[in-house]
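Need the bound structure for magnesium ion, inputs here:
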Amino acid sequence: MVRTGVMTMTGNGLTSSSSTKLARAGRPLLEIHDVYAGYNVDFDILKGVSMHVKPGEIVCVIGPNGAGKSTVFKALYGFLNVRQGRVLFDDQDISDIRPQDALKAGITIVPQLRSLFPQMTVYENLEMGMYLEKDKERIKRRINYIYDLFPRLAERTSQKAGTMSGGEQRMLEIGRALMWEPKLVLMDEPSAGLAPLITKMIFRNIQRLNREIGLTVLMIEQNARQGLEISNRGYVLELGKNSYEGTGHELLSNAEVRRAFLGGR
Ligand SMILES: Nc1ncnc2c1ncn2[C@@H]1O[C@H](COP(=O)(O)OP(=O)(O)OP(=O)(O)O)[C@@H](O)[C@H]1O
Ligand SMILES: [Mg+2]
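Answer from helper R.:
Posting the output first, comments after.
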């Protein structure tokens, strides 16, 4: 593990198989190089963030409230401008990408705050995951595929999303993010607001998707310990800059990281 503000490759041999050419070349799918971004013109929230995600990896970002974790997602999805630095995705420079093009490029996002349409059914919410697609048959096929992955959603196809339990709603949000056959899913605190048992279930499902369909995930987690346990690698973000990086195991066993971010045990 390294304590660093610059990008360092920490290959751990844990990446699972994926069909992209990048996987064969062992190259990152996503590269964030020294990125600066912020909301107010003269004030940067991100001050030199560097991270990478290889195909088939689960990578977890942890750090205190207000560190800029969600801001990283906004910057790389085009909701915020990258003021300095570069973002590469699948060998393309996406530093200036717009959100609709990020989707087309193969990145989807499960946002931190609840994002379902509560008055719409499970089926209709899943359809929204492919709102750019005109081919109705293709949408139907994708929804059936999501129902195979999450039979609980199939059972509830006509139920209004807002009436489902917190865990079911999170599963639906993840299912919706998979509709577009993404190469990378960004998950902002998938366990937020969920009871411990439901959190476990959501993490198990993320791991299963990673194993079974080679899903590549960049995830932010407040449940730092559990998030790192299911991740290949992780980053600590502090004050708009990454300060530690390493394999999930390395971060979990590092004394400083444990003291500062994992409840000291
Ligand atoms: N829309 C906005 N306008 C102005 N400032 C913002 C906006 N969104 C976030 N910020 C500020 O940017 C900083 C980083 O916020 P961000 O949401 O990225 O933190 P975070 O690490 O995701 O925190 P949390 O763990 O609480 O989700 C905070 O100081 C926050 O107040
Ligand atoms: Mg956040």
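Comments: DSSP finds eleven helices and eleven strands in the chain. Confidence is low (pLDDT under 50) at residues 4-19.
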